[in-house]
Each structure stands twice: as C-alpha cells, then as structure tokens.
Design brief:
Blueprint: E1 2-9, H1 16-25, E2 33-38, E3 44-50, E4 64-65, E5 71-79, H2 82-91, H3 101-112, E6 122-130, E7 135-140, E8 149-152, E9 156-160, H4 177-186, E10 199-201, E11 206-211, E12 214-219, H5 235-253, E13 260-263, H6 268-280, E14 286-292, H7 300-310, E15 313-319, H8 321-328, H9 331-335, H10 344-355, E16 360-362, H11 367-371, H12 376-383, H13 386-390, H14 392-400, H15 405-412, H16 422-430, H17 436-442, H18 462-489, E17 493-495, H19 501-507, E18 516-517, E19 520-521, H20 523-529, H21 549-553, H22 558-564, H23 567-573, H24 578-589, H25 596-612
Parallel strand pairs: 13-14, 13-16, 14-15, 16-17
Antiparallel strand pairs: 1-3, 1-9, 2-3, 4-5, 5-6, 6-7, 7-11, 8-9, 8-10, 11-12, 18-19
Helix pairs in contact: 2-3, 5-6, 5-19, 5-20, 6-7, 6-20, 10-18, 12-18, 14-15
Length: 613
C-alpha cells in the first residue's frame, strides 16, 4: 500500500520540481520510503511513497527498474497471487532479486505487456515507463479498490493516487458543473469525473498507453461481461462454492510481513470475514470496532459478542460528538473534493485505533451490494411494478397526507420521471439526498442529469439492477474511496476479501432466491457465516455505520449549520436557490429531523469550498 505519481511530457522536458511537490502531497500514503525517477530523455518522471507490507527490505523500494534498465515501475496495492505468478515466470526463465510482489508486477509486464493484469488477483494502480519506446502504461484494478487520478491536456499527462497531487495542473476554480449535480444526488462524485473540470478519475478495470502517437485507454475487464444467461439455483452447491471462494480469498489476503487484524462491526459481512480469518489464522487475530454513547447507534455490543465467540483480541473505541467535531474539518483534506459519507468519521477512528496494533486490516466491504443487503433493493422492486408506475402520483400524494414524517420520505420514492435514471433516484431518496426533481428546486444547474446505464447479457431483476448500480458507482467511488483515504491517513493498509473478482463474478450469477428469502436478505452469505457463529447473534435489524448526525446537528454541531448554511455563503457560491435552502434549514431546526442529510450535503460542499479556496 503506497502512493504513486508521475508526469509525462510529449513536448519538451518535465518540471522536476513539480514532480517533487506531487510526491510531497501524498507523503502520508507511504511513511517508510520515498523515491523519484527521472528518465534520461527528461520526458517522464515517476514518484513513489512506500508503506511496507510485503518484503520489508530496501531492495523492494520504488521506483523499481529492471536489470536491463529499460522498464521502471511505480506500484500501489497488492497482487495476492504473486507467488504463483513468480513461479510461472521462473519456469520461463525469469530471475528475481527480491521477495516482493512489486518485482513480480514489473516482470509480469515485461513478459506479457498489457495482458499481465489478466494474471493478477489483487488491488492495484501502477505505471510503467518503457525507455526504449518512450511510452507510459497505466493500470487500475478490476473493482476500483486502489485510487488513481489523471490530468491530460494533449501534451502533458500527469497521474497520482489522490487529487491533491494534481491540483497544480488545473485552475481550482474551474469546477465540473455536472459533477456538482451528481454530488448532491449521490453524496460523492462518480467516475470518470472529479470536482475539477481538468482532473479525472481513472476508471476501474482500465489500462492506458501514452506515447508519441497519443493516448489510448482500454477496458480489460467488465462487470457486465461476468453475467451468465442462466442463474445458479442449487442451494447446497452454491453455499459450498461460496464458502471455498471466501476461504481462498482470505487465505491470499492474510499473506503479510506485518501484523494484521479485522474491522468488526458485528454485522454479517465483517463477521463473516473475521470468522473465516480467525479459522484460517495460526494465532488469535486482532479485531477492532467503534461504538457510540447514543444507544440507538451503538452496535459495538454485537461486535463484542462475535469477538468473544471467535476468541479474537478485541479492541473498541467509543465515539463522542467531540471526536466528530475535531474531524469534520479534515474531511476535505482526506478526499480533495466534496464528499458526504458520514461513516468516514468512525472509519477514520477505527483505523486510528487499529494502527496501535497492526499495519494491515481486512474489512467486510462488498457484501451488501453482492447479496442484496440494502433496503433500497426492496424499494426498487416495488417501484418496478407496472401498477405502481401508473399510480405513483396518487400514491405519493396519499403518503404525504399521512401524519408520520417518515412517510413523506417514502412518498418521495414515487416522485420520479419514467425518462429519468430510476436507479439513481432510488439511491438518492434512500440516502435522503436531493432527488433529480428536487435538484431543479434547490439549485440552479444548467446541465442535463446523467443517465447511468449499462448493457447486460441477461435481464436483471429490479433489485439486481439497483445492486449493479451500486457495484459500478457507490462501491468504488464512495465506500472504497472512504476506506482508502482514512486508512492511508493512519498509515495502515485495508484489504477487502469479499471483493475478490472471482467472488464478484460468481455472486453476480446467483439467483435472487439465494440472496433474499422472504424478508431475510443476504441469505446465502448468512449460511456461510452460521458455520462459524451462532445464528442467534444476528437476530436483529440491520444497522448502518453512520454517526448520530441528526441529533448532533440540532445540538453540539449546530454551529456547522450557522457557519456553512447561511445567506452570504450560499449567494457567493452561486448555484444554490438560497431561499429554498434556508427554508430547509429552518424546517430542520423546527423539528423536521429527517432533512439532516440534505443539509449535510450543503455543509460538506461549502466546507470543501472554504478549504479549497
């Protein structure tokens, strides 16, 4: 786990001082070593910051150049099956000087060129400069676990692990207006956009070749291509196969030359990872969880019960509003663009807790998206009913007239256009963000809404369509981004065993009857878990991993509303309908607590503006 950056100039020489500043901007990603490479032609510069996980020796430092001097690599992430690949390459006459996966990546590229990624099981972003061809090759992993951003103006190309390494190449006042609109509906900016017009997210499962002929980008793996025409229905066989895939994935991800642990929330996903990791480990593993003083948000007692059953060395930290207050202003520094996932704060704190004991952790990310664990999947199924589509206006009006405030939110699910992106609409309303129609009321956006659509090999159910949307957007651009930044800020590496691409390819083809049985979501994953932990420990409603934000904004954190949601700031930024936003704030302070997430979006955006300018 590291940070990478680089510059290539097609006309003239690169600015070496700018490369050094890029490296400094991501220094927190690699406290163990740093390195700079400048090509003989001065057309390419590469920078690397290292967090040592495998082969802790200096021989594995980067940038790494092969023995011929032709190829130079900077690499962020891990290739878990590097030992297998190394054995294959040795049989074909390739020799190695280190025990690192970095050298395996370099030699694999030399041997197979762009096809090397087909051999990799891991999370990665890496770049290789070819001195002979004067060519840069850039790659990102299939799922989008490791981050990568780039700038390109036709003559100068620059890339980095975080946006902050690239802001010197752009006018920071040149915001991407479509990205702003997407942010207020999703809580994050989806790829390939960033908040800046001239900086882009490098999409997952892509590679790029840059040489004197120009820039060529290609997708080497596609989520929709993993779909088969027929789904898997065999319960017994599916459970056995899934269990083996998860065991294999965790075995690969337990390879480490540093101490490791597991983030354990007490939910299905993290408990499955912790249970199998403990079963496969040779000693008691460390587990880490977060609790809250507010009982309705506190799931830590369930994490403790799972840890007690497994016999792990369990560690817990209780979050206070003071902790949140101290960290909120750091969110723009972590993400470099507007980002509104409140679980970033407890994830940062559990990472800080873990750093005292370990340098690598496993997480349970990816379970909900693969096994239909979110409530919005049920909503999408309801809205897909043709009768509901015809009568949605009547249903919406009827719900809003009922006394309970939460039914007003339920009514908003039915307030959509048949020509719009229904997946995005369901996501926005489920998160209590601004729907596409609400954006017309609260903002002055001049662009058309983005339609997120993909071609499929088979007809997916409504719930599967919504989950596919999450796998393509929410998972890489929100959840995995969140975990990467806060773990890196604390100097630890996070690995996500449920997102092994072999598992994802398999679960996409499980019949929905194996994922949801009646009201029981994530059914098949639970069957795997119950081989390790008693079912009784999980007989409770699903909990999220957020903070008690609606309570805190009404009390201890109310100053955020006063400082960042006021007439002056809203008018200065320019795209807000100031009157409507201020009415929203007044309604919240008068007791309509369900509006807190909309105001949080505004707070986070305006907090980023203050920090960025």
């Amino acid at each position: 786990m590291c940070g990478i950056a680089g510059i290539v100039s097609l006309n003239g020489s690169i600015d070496e001082s700018k490369l050094i500043e890029m490296s400094k901007a991501i220094a927190h990603r690699g406290p163990d070593a740093e390195g700079i490479f400048i090509s003989e032609s001065k057309k390419c510069g590469l920078a690397h910051r290292r967090l040592s996980i495998i082969d802790l020796s200096e021989d594995a430092n980067q940038p790494m150049t092969d023995i011929s001097g032709r190829f130079t690599l900077v690499f962020n992430g891990e290739v878990y099956n590097f030992e297998e690949i190394r054995d294959t390459l040795k049989k074909e006459g390739v020799s190695f000087n280190t025990a690192s996966d970095t050298e395996v990546v370099l030699q694999a590229y030399i041997h197979w060129r762009e096809k090397c990624v087909d051999q990799f099981n891991g999370m990665f972003a890496f770049a290789i400069w070819d001195k002979e061809e004067q060519q840069l090759a850039l790659f990102r992993d299939r799922i989008g676990i490791k981050p990568l951003y780039f700038f390109w103006d036709g003559t100068t190309f620059a890339f980095g692990s975080e946006i902050k390494s690239l802001t010197a190449f752009t006018d920071r006042k040149n915001w991407n207006q479509r990205a702003i609109s997407e942010y207020f509906q999703l809580g994050f900016v989806p790829a390939p956009m960033t908040i800046y017009e001239d900086i882009h997210k490098f999409e997952q499962a892509h590679y790029l070749i840059l040489n004197k002929k120009g820039l060529h980008k290609k997708q080497y793996w596609c989520l929709s291509d993993q779909l088969q025409k027929k789904t898997i229905l065999d319960r017994v066989g599916a459970k056995k196969k899934l269990s083996k895939l998860i065991q294999s994935s965790i075995d690969l991800r337990l390879k480490s030359d540093v101490p490791y642990g597991v983030f354990l929330s007490g939910g299905i996903d993290s408990s499955t990872v912790a249970s199998i990791a403990q079963d496969r480990a040779k000693q008691n593993i460390n587990t880490f969880s977060i609790g809250f003083t507010e009982a309705q948000y506190n799931e830590s007692e369930y994490a403790q019960k799972v840890a007690d059953h497994l016999g792990t060395n369990h560690h817990e930290y209780t979050v206070s509003q003071k902790d949140a207050q101290e960290l909120i202003t750091k969110i723009p520094d972590w993400y470099d663009e507007p980002y509104a996932d409140t679980s970033a704060i407890p994830t940062y704190l559990v990472s800080k807790l873990a750093k005292d004991k370990v340098t690598m952790v496993l997480t349970g990310d990816g379970g909900d998206e693969q096994f239909l664990g979110y409530g919005r999947y049920k909503w999408k199924q309801r809205l897909n009913n043709p009768l509901v589509q015809l009568g949605r206006g009547v249903i919406k009006r009827g719900l809003k007239n009922l006394p309970k405030r939460e039914l007003e939110r339920a009514g908003e699910f039915f307030n959509y256009s048949l020509r719009g992106d229904l997946n995005k609409h369901v996501f926005s309303v489920d998160q209590s963000f601004f729907s596409s129609r609400e954006c017309e009321r609260f903002f002055h956006f001049q662009n058309r809404p983005i339609q997120h659509q993909w071609s499929m090999k088979r007809n997916l159910s409504a719930a599967e369509q919504q989950a596919f949307f999450d796998l393509q957007l929410y998972l890489p651009d929100d959840l995995l981004t969140k975990v990467d930044r806060v773990t890196m800020a604390n100097g630890i590496e996070a690995r996500v065993p449920l997102l092994d691409h072999n598992i994802v390819s398999y679960t996409l083809n499980l019949d929905t009857s194996l994922k949801v049985k009646g009201k029981d979501q994530k059914w098949l994953l639970k069957q795997v878990l119950y081989d390790y932990v008693p079912k009784e420990l999980f007989d409770r409603p699903k909990w999220g991993f957020g903070i008690p934000l609606k309570d805190w904004l009404s009390d201890e954190l109310r100053f955020l509303l006063e400082d960042f949601v006021n007439d002056k700031m809203l008018d200065e930024i320019g795209f807000y309908n100031t009157q409507e936003i201020m009415q929203l704030k007044a309604r919240f302070l008068n007791g309509e607590s369900h509006l807190f997430n909309k105001l949080w979006l505004v707070i986070c955006f305006n907090l980023w503006v203050v920090r960025d300018l």
